[in-house]
């Protein structure tokens, strides 16, 4: 039987606020355990939550970026359950009336085809703390630094049909939230965490199969793999005459499998009800309009502008807008050198190659966008040739010089465009290679074009690479053809 | 000095008739001498109080004293006090010291008041008789066989017995007004949102409100001046200017329209209580007020709606007491579930457990709509009843409780106990202010007249209460203590 996979995702995005969603404690990552948990985060008796306005603004901006409705009223609810890393015994979340309504996210697959994933809603909630098992001798430690960190949970419709679509969707969200500056998007530090709802159904069937929710899927690679193994499990089960049980499963990347955490029957009754400590959140049109003015250029808009205004190919535009950092770097290079294609080639070629090789992110590049832009300007105004440019780039990369001009000066890379000087070099090369000159003369006219490369190489070598290659080429052709 | 009102104490301090140290010493001695009878304090902070009193005296000598400088007070043990135990009347918090002051405590301390200690209360403010306290019941100073009312029974008894000139209470369904009535003192529940709830341990967050309990309406006005106002740490506190509540106390009542809700004078109202309340209303008529019969048609649904909403919120608010971070923890837990179960089972009393169970049930899947949602609808109707009534009258008057103080240890049926709050609960559901003022005695026990006003009408309520107290002397009577 032919099976179709149906996938929906719940993505928790950690918002990049300075302080927590309901307290003034810092949200910085990696502090000593429990040093960033105040009385509110600890759930001490008598303390009360106060909503962080920045978290609200960030959620609203996300909603506007996905063309969602921003309801005038949204409500915080309490989700009640006991867990040691949940200090109050409830999580403050939004259940019935979320801050962001239905919207859409466009995803692009590897074959450049695009699909729309509908967003059911997105809501604000607080993160829990962490249980720590190491170094506690069979006991459990609790670190509440993360408790109260603002999360935006983005819930999609079940619109994805393959693991690739699912990971493309998460990539699209990642791009969007980093563009918006509402999250650092750092997957390793848990800034984006996904729960995946997976079901399968016979191809052509309209109704959905029973789904399993796979938790703890926290990298692009794991998203695809977790879905693959879960789909395989469900199909095997169904083909053996079994049934899929609605349950929560955990992906174990080490054992490459998903396993049951709890079934529907074991599921908590969360006893949601409106949090009486927080008033309903009222957002008027003026507020929403103001947030709209704060939106940066979004990835799709930027991509289109790169194509329409800068004349880049759609492929180049897609690569250069993949992250906000990449796009910003490219745009700075472009501003400095005023040649979009040249900038695009270098950012995707020389720069990305070196970054990949050394496993660096573009934000960690030893060569700044300003340095690269100035270098390309020298290439463009013929101060240096392409070969020298690569040499300058290497010097800048190793940080032995501050600017391209310093490298050019110090290393004598300035291109020679003085005709007399080049003529002298060319004459010398012809004089030094009589055999090759004879061969050139004897060759069929259509072969001569290729043979001239030898003389160009010799001339460039003699000039230590500084001669203008076009001029060398032109002069050689003139002089050799005169000998015929 | 213990028979003086707060206003008189403030005057005495200002005139140098006595120092704050003398005053504080006097009250501490009375607590020492009498409180074993009443059990109105859980914690007495004598040394701290004297230090604070000396500081207030120094401040006064320097000419920097405010009106409340050096005035001794007691706090219901639900208000968090930095480094002083805040037990909430529960074994659960017997070992709990908050690292912060409640906002109202902070404000009063800033005004220079002296904290005598923390008063007894029903466990987590759940009760109407002060019998659910882990620290034992409080006894009524007028007759120690009787309860003082609850849940702010310790505060009411302490003020009535002259162990403190005034105290703070909290009121979720009548917990200031009913004990004030039972003990013959004046107690004000402000409008929901008027006084910050920060640092006030939550029972039912949408109903809880702190307020003053004192010897007179004027005393309540003085305290409310210091307590009221918006608090950025409490999102439900209202950003609205705070008037000087003492300014309007003397306004004449001529033309005042008093509504008598007929539902507050029906079956279940003790004849002696009714007689005293009607006498009080006659006093108002003599002061130029007119009386109109009004109806609050949804009154009968108030108690059931309250006992859905309050326990629902409580079941969630009390989830943090899990033995993990603070409070009581059982010995040698076997695993996580054992830690939760035994810690909570050992440290919560019967009534608290009952309300957690009720609340957990009413919020459960399949019951939520029938209980919680319905109760919220009822709540809106009750609120509307009051809004409609205040279209016709300025204030509403009636009894604060259906009976006078009852015998300690006598009530076994919880529902019978819940009906104690039949005249007070709707006020919390509606969020309006209410005050209970002493209006005479029935068989030796004080009767409380309850006066209700529209949202943020505290100034007028206090004015109406004060004018009555200018015409009567019930409020200054005190039980004879040998």
Short description:
The complex is a heterodimer of chains A (484) and B (482). Chain A is α+β, with helices and mostly antiparallel strands.
Provide a descriptive summary of the structure in words.
The complex is a heterodimer of chains A (484) and B (482). With 484 residues, chain A is of the alpha+beta class. Chain A folds into three domains: 10-194 and 265-288, no CATH class; 297-411, no CATH class; 419-483, Arc Repressor Mutant, subunit A (Orthogonal Bundle). Chain A is 42% helix and 18% strand. Chain A has helices spanning 39-42, 53-65, 163-180, 220-239, 285-293, 299-308, 314-320, 324-337, 340-357, 369-380, 386-397, 404-411, 419-432, 434-442, 445-462, 469-483; strands at 3-14, 73-74, 77-80, 90-93, 103-108, 114-126, 130-132, 141-143, 150-156, 192-202, 212-217, 247-252, 257-263, 273-274, 281-282. Chain A has an eight-stranded mixed sheet. In chain A, helix 3 packs antiparallel against helix 4 (220-239), helix 6 packs across helix 7 (314-320) and helix 8 packs across helix 9 (340-357). Chain A is elongated. The termini of chain A are far apart. The mean pLDDT of chain A is 92. Chain B has 482 residues and is an alpha/beta fold. Chain B has a domain at 6-249 and 458-476: Amidase signature (AS) enzymes, CATH 3.90.1300. Chain B is built from 15 helices and eleven strands. Chain B has helices spanning 6-15, 20-38, 46-61, 103-110, 153-160, 177-183, 217-227, 271-286, 302-317, 336-347, 350-362, 369-392, 414-418, 425-430, 458-471; strands spanning 41-44, 72-76, 114-119, 166-171, 186-189, 209-214, 257-261, 290-294, 395-399, 434-442, 445-452. Chain B has an eleven-stranded mixed sheet, with helices on both faces. In chain B, helix 5 (153-160) packs parallel to helix 6 and helix 7 (217-227) runs antiparallel to helix 15 (458-471). The longest helix of chain B is centred in the C-terminal third of the chain and has 24 residues, at 369-392. The model of chain B has no long low-confidence stretch (mean pLDDT 97). Classes of the chains: A alpha+beta (484), B alpha/beta (482). The interface between A and B is large, with 28 and 43 residues.
